[in-house]
Structure formats: C-alpha cells, structure tokens
Amino acid sequence: MSAIAIHGTTSNAGKTIITTALCRIFNDKGYRVAPFKSQNMSLNSCVIPNGGEISRAQALQAHAARIEPTADMNPILLKPKAEHVSQVVIRGRPYADMNVKEYHDFVEKQGRDIVKTSLKNLSSEYDLIILEGAGSPAEINILQRDIVNVYPAKLARAKCILVHNIEYGSTLVYLFGTLKLLDTERELYSGIILNQAQGTVDAVELEHILEKPVFGVVPHIEDLHLPEEDSLSLKNHDGHFDVGVIRLPHMSNFTDFDALKLEGLKVRYISTSTESEIKRASVLIIPGTKNTILDLKWLREQGLDHAIVQVANDGRVVIGICGGYQMLGKRIIDSGFENNREEIDGLGLLDVVTRFDSYAKITERIKGTIVGDGILEKFQGEEITGYEIHMGQTSTSLKPCFIINRGGKTIQDGAINGSVFGTYVHGIFDNPPIRKAVLRAIQKPSSNIERDLDDEIDRLASIFSASVDLEKIEALI
Amino acid sequence: MNNLMFLGAKSCGKSTIMNSLRRLLSEKGYRVFTLNKQDYTSMEVRGQSLCGQSLCKYDYILLEGDELTDVKIADMVDASIVLVGDIERGGVFAVLYGMYALLNGQRVSGFLINKFRGDDTILMSGLKFLEEKTGVPFLGVIPYVSDMDDFIEVFRRAVEPDVMSQILGVNL
User: What is the pLDDT of residue A232?
Assistant: First the structure.
C-alpha cells in the first residue's frame, strides 16, 4: 500500500478538491484508491451504506474514487452544536457531545488509536490512500496532539504535498514558514502545489528558496459544482459571497448569524447600497435592532431600502429578524413607546403591521414548529428553538413561519412570502432545518447549470491533470 | 521614540491595527503620521520620496506592509517592524516565523496575532516556542471582533503595555 498526503499551509488551501481530483485521476489509471481524513469538522455529513455518517467531503472523494464510502475514511467527525460544543462522531456513530477541552483530552487519550485502526483497515483493502490533512501542519501549539497531519502521514508512510492558496498572498512566506517550523519533518514533503492561481506564477524562485519542487499551479476553477463539498457548494458562481447582513446602527444579537458560518456560508456586513456585496448576496438578512424606527430611517438615508426590495424581487432570500422583521412589513405605528408618536412605512415586502402601543417587552425562550410555506415548506413539522426579546406587536394576513409555545401559550410567529420571511425568533439559524431551508433556497438559482456530479469530477480531474506534473506525483507511489 | 511598520499578509487586519495605535497615541498627545500601502506605492509611482515629506513635525510614523519588499520603506524611516498574523485561516505560526526568517530578523521587534476566537491559553505553548526560537516578544493576541467599532478597545486590552511601550519608546 502507498500513500500520498495533501497538507495545506492554511485552511481552505484547496486540500479537499485536490484530494478529490487525485482520487479520480488514480482510479482512472487503475489504482484501487481510497480517501482518508482523520478528523473533519462539518455539519454536512453523509449517511454511509451501513448506516453510519461521515463528512460529505470524504464521501465525495470516495465517489471520485468510484468506491462506497466507509466510516474508516473519516473516523472522527465533529458536528458543531453550539459555541465550543460539538457532537463527536467516531467511526460513523455518535459518541458524545464534548466541549473543546473535553475533546482535546479525548484526542490525547484515544485519538491516535482511532486513526491508526482506520488507516490499517483501509490499507488492507486499497493500493493507494490519499490522506487529506486539516488546517496547517505547523500549528506548533498543538503538535503534540496532532492526529490530522504529520501523525497519520508518518503512520501511512505517506509522501506529503504542501498546498498553498495563492489568493491569500504571502505565498513564499507561508510555504517557507511551514517547512521551517516542521524542522526535521520537512523531509516528509516531496513537493508543493499552488492553488487558485489567476494569471501566471513564477515557481522557479520558490523552488530555489524552498528546495522543493513545485508540482504545479492549479488555476481558480470557475463554476465548479461539487455539491457535497463544504466550502465549494455554497459559493456563488461569481465569487465567495453568500450572506449579507445589513449593519444597522443599533443592531443587536450579533451571534444570530454565527451558525450560518458553520455551514461554510460567508457572512458579510453591508452598510451602504453601493457595496457590490448587496448585488452578490444570495441571502440578505435584516437583523434585530434596539431601535426599529431610527434604523429604518437610516436604511432609507443609505438608499438600502430600494436595494433590499430589488434583492427580494430578484427571488433571492430576504430574512428579517425581530426589528428586521418589523421593517419588512408595510407599516410601523409607534404610539410613543419606542420613540415618539409617529407612523412610518416599512419596506412593504411582507403584509404585516407592527404597533408599539405598550412598554411590554417579551424576553423568553421558545419552542416551536415550522408551518410556513415558501422556502420553509419542505421543512414543515420540524421543531425549532430560540428566544424572543422585543417590544411591539405584529399582525399579518400572511401565513406564519412558526407555531410557537411561549410561556404555555401557543401563538403564531412571523410571516412568509415565498423567499422573504420575518420572525421574532432570535437564534433561528441555530436550528438545522432553518439552515437547510436557506441552503436549499440559495442552491436553487444555480440549479439550471447543475451538471452531473461525475462530469464535474471529471472536469476537475482534467483541469488538475493539465496543470500539475502528474508523472512526478505518480512517481511518489 | 520609534517608528513602526505593521507587516502581514493580505487582510490580516494590519490597517485596523495601525489606525487603532494611531488613535491611542493621538489620545496621548502625540502627532502621528500613518502611511498605508497605497500611499507609498502611489508616491513611488509619482517618483516622490518619503524624505520629501515634512515628517519632522510628527512624533511617530506608522506604516503597513504586506510584502517582504515593503521593508525598504521601513528602512527609509528607520521603523521597527511588528509582524502580524491572521489566525482565522490557520498557519499563523508559519506565516509569522516565515516572515521573521526571510527577513533574517532584521528590524523585527514584535509579533501580533489577530482574529483569535476561543480561549487563548491553547496558544501559549506556541507563543513561547516562537519567542524562544527568535528572541522576539509577542505583543499580544487580539480577539476576533465582529463590530469594528469595538476594535480599538479590544486592541487596547489585548496588547502587552510593557512590550508595546518598549517598542515605541514611550509609556502607553
């Protein structure tokens, strides 16, 4: 059995797609090849034939290698549950929920044995294993409990290739620093691959300083649709921008969007209508605010009102949370409880009216069920949790998003109209069904150019083959 | 008093750091001149030199750089260099040590880590390792800030006052 390990100078170096490409290329050449990644953190898991689950990235790579995925290909899967807590899935089966400290202790005690067993299982079945690393192999603060980079590479006697994403800049610095810090282990590295190049790259100076061959320069691949891969699946085809959050002056509850990042979505704040981000956003969120009316006026001053309506008219997803929900409505009537006595038009995207006619403020944790249609329809009946903090009462003619239980009473929450919805529930994206609904909705626009998965893998493999010296890589085997 | 260049890869946050330090120094009554990469690149294009600026009326010149070749600007104004690493994308020790080693340590007076999430005790062994390997101190680990309005306060709390004061030659 031979092994090649793909390590990156940073995360998002491109390890996953390079591993995918190599799985396909070497399977085409007649090798029995399997992917391996000791540990993956992802909410995107995939059910394998015997019923367990592994990261979707390794399942995709198995598909590229034309084999069934098995738990050994990703023996440790971390599924983030809350801040600093993950469900730890060992060899396909849920093992326990752990915080960071508990997980580190667990890895120190058992991590290496788990990795060893799975690598052994794979090596008895395959000619070639492509090991994907995680993060950078030169994180000197955690080297002693490394189970993802140098440790499995040494176990499998793998020849390592170091990948750098040129988009990040400082190419020489990252590569040089990584190899230098690895000290004697730099001997494990047979060469370099540069990724995401736009334009030409002078590799001669790099080879001279690094004393390692550059196997190739892989271009940035437009429009690559590999839906199972975390960081690729959710990109717009023209860039990396997914979710725009309107940066209201009195914005509250900043943590509402963190869970979206776990899905690999890029979240950016938007504060002017001229920003190109608003044109590229697949999802626009108007967040909670401590002052709805003042922020709505600010929105108009910035010209963001027209921009948001345009996004909604384009069929892209617009979500209002709490104060943002109130803004999406037709009218807000303040009887002098939020600010002064006044009435103001909302953005008019949802047929709802909000009244501030008492100081009553709701602050409560809630549980509920999805009942909305539009982009929530597929997830009707799924349960959600969250919390409410707001003043104001909202009435609507539209279908609610949720039926919630608040303090023993069952009430309707929110309003939905196609791809636009609003809700009072904070922490709404902590609920997997809601994230899935958003992901599903934003993958739609690209569905017209969706290609067959195997065609896409073949396209990746052929671009990769054309840009690297495959003979040198095959010589590592 | 020493001039200072913040050197780091693209979007590591060095401009924000430079501007925060400018504000902190201004609050103390110092006159500070900041020069970002576009400034001196366009000056170079126009054939102007830094020395042509009447810089003597400033107490401090703060600069940013993202390539090793930018160090020539630090040479011009005799600035010491703080290396900035973005930990969000990983490889932070590699990028810091890579810069240090490729510069042969010249002018390097401190390391700074930006955009850290979580409990920073996990980093300690790495910081210590790099400090011992290079003899260059860490100025601090700046937590990830989602609201840039909060950055200056977070920065103020994150930097080691003694190390910063020593690098700047002034009590901050």
Answer: 32
Task: Classify residue B172: in a domain, yes or no.
Answer: no
Chain B residues lying within 8 Å of A84, measured CB to CB: 118
Is A140 close to B125, i.e. CB distance below 8 A? yes
Contact A134, A42 (CB under 8 A): no
For chain A, the domains span 2-230, 234-449
- CA dist list (Å): A249 to A260, A293, A326: 22, 11, 16
A41 vs B100 pLDDT, higher one: B100
Q: A167 is written with which tokens?
A: 């988009």
Which residues of B are less than 8 Å from A140 in CB distance?
A: 93, 125-126, 129-130
Which of B90, B93, B118 lies at the smallest CB-CB distance from A11? B90
Compute the count of residue pairs across chains A and B with CB atoms less than 8 Å apart: 97
CATH of the domain at B16: 3.40.50.300
In a domain, B114, yes or no: yes
- Establish if A466 touches chain B: CB-CB under 8 angstroms: no
pLDDT confidence of residue B17: 95
Residue ranges in chain A whose pLDDT is less than 50: 228-240, 444-451
Among 3.10.20.30, 3.10.490.10, 1.20.58.100, 3.40.50.300, what is the CATH number of A2-230?
3.40.50.300
CA proximity to A422, closest of A323, A313, A325? A325
- Rounded distance, CA A437 to CA A443, Å? 10
Report the pLDDT value the prediction gives residue B49, as an integer from 0 to 100. 67
Q: What is the dihedral of CA B135, B136, B141, B145, to 10 degrees?
A: -160
pLDDT at A235: 34
**Is A23 noted as a catalytic residue in this protein?**
no
Q: Nearest C-alpha of chain B: how many angstroms from A140? A: 5
Residue of B20, B11, B33, B13 lying closest to B157 (CA atoms): B20
- Its domain, for residue B127, covers 3-167
Top CATH class of A234-449 equals alpha beta
Please tell me the total count of domains within chain B.
Answer: 1
Domains A2-230 and A234-449 share a fold: yes
Integer-rounded Cα radius of gyration of chain B: 15
Per residue in B22-66, pLDDT (tens digit) is 999 999 999 999 988 888 887 776 766 666 566 778 899 999 999
- Give which of A131, A174, A81 is closest to B90, Cα–Cα: A174
List pLDDT tens digits, range A56-82. 889 889 999 999 899 999 999 998 777
Query: Tokens 């390794």 correspond to what residue?
Result: A58
- pLDDT of A230 reads 40
Angle at A170 between CA A207 and CA B137, to 5 degrees: 110
What's the rounded Cα separation, in Å, for the pair A6 and A17?
A: 10
Q: Exposed e or buried b for every residue in A56-77, given b needs 16+ CB within 10 A?
A: bbbbbbbbbbebebbbbbbbbb
Q: Which residue type, as a one-letter code, is found at position A303?
A: G
> Are the beta carbons of A168 and B66 separated by less than 8 Å?
no
* Whether residue A46 lies in the annotated active site: no
Of A100, A173, A176, the CB nearest to B118: A100
From the candidates B37, B108, B141, B146, which should be mutated to test the interface with A, based on the most A CB atoms within 10 A? B146
Which tokens belong to A451? 């290609």
- Taking an 8 Å cut-off on Cβ atoms, the answer to whether A174 and B129 are in contact is no
Nearest CB to B98 within list A141, A176, A254: A176
Q: What are phi and psi of A382, to 5 degrees?
A: -75, 150
- CB distance A180–B101 less than 8 Å? yes
Interface contact A172-B102, CB threshold 8 A: yes
Phi-psi sector, A315: left (phi>0), alpha (psi -120 to 50), beta? left
